[in-house]
Amino acid sequence: MNNIYLQLFITFFKIGLFTFGGGWAMISIIQREIVERHHWISQEDFIDLLAVAQSMPGILAVNISTVIGDRLRGLRGSLAAALGTILPSFCIILAIAIFLTPDVIKNNAIVARVFKGIRPAVVALIIAPVIITARTAGITWRTVIIPVAVALLIYSKLPVVSNPILYIVLGAMGGYIYFTHRSLNKEGGKA
């Protein structure tokens, strides 16, 4: 199949159709398809695009498909990938709205059991990209304290320290200072 737009659409359509649990649950599947199966981008580029997608407002699954499509083929690529991601959910939600009322979902034992069975799988699908991202980002046992501390502070729900934007800004500032200082030391050492 030579048409990259069709490939993008079909790839993200399959991902959107068979992934439950939202954007984070899709990340490991997207990574496997885009990086490992199709070799469209490198693992490092994928992590960078994931960071961009997370910083954008909106739904992570749509954001990551949009930035990957844009990286591969610009606006048309981003439209093909985003449409592929959105269309399955739209069709499923439309069918649910037409055929399943809230009473049917609450009172149907089969539907309730299906949703309870999906929960553990969703947790695993969310944990997998966290581990992959940590490895690619170079997080080691020595540096794991930073994400663990930030996660605990956000979880604490204390008014000042539970704001994730604070940690994004602090992380950006800390990274800039650290890597600027490091590059200045390397340049100073070469002279």
Tell me what the structure shows.
The chain is mainly α and 191 residues long. It folds into two domains: 4-138, no CATH class; 142-191. The chain is built from eight helices and no strands. The protein has helices at 4-18, 23-37, 43-55, 60-99, 102-107, 109-136, 145-156, 164-190. Helix 1 (4-18) packs across helix 4 (60-99) and helix 2 (23-37) crosses helix 6 (109-136).
Describe the secondary structure blueprint for this structure.
Layout: H1 4-18, H2 23-37, H3 43-55, H4 60-99, H5 102-107, H6 109-136, H7 145-156, H8 164-190
Helix pairs in contact: 1-2, 1-4, 2-4, 2-6, 3-4
What is the H/E order? HHHHHHHH
Strand content: under 5%
The major sheet is characterized as: none
Give me the number of helical elements.
Answer: 8
By secondary-structure content and strand pairing, the structural class works out as: mainly alpha
Provide the number of structural domains. 2
Gap from first CA to last CA? 53 Å
Shape: globular
Topology, number of strands: 0
Radius of gyration: 20 Å
Mean pLDDT: 84
Q: Helical residue percent? A: over 70%
Contiguous runs where pLDDT drops below 50 for at least 5 residues:
none
Main features:
single chain, mainly alpha
Give the structure's gist in a few sentences.
The protein has helices at 4-18, 23-37, 43-55, 60-99, 102-107, 109-136, 145-156, 164-190.
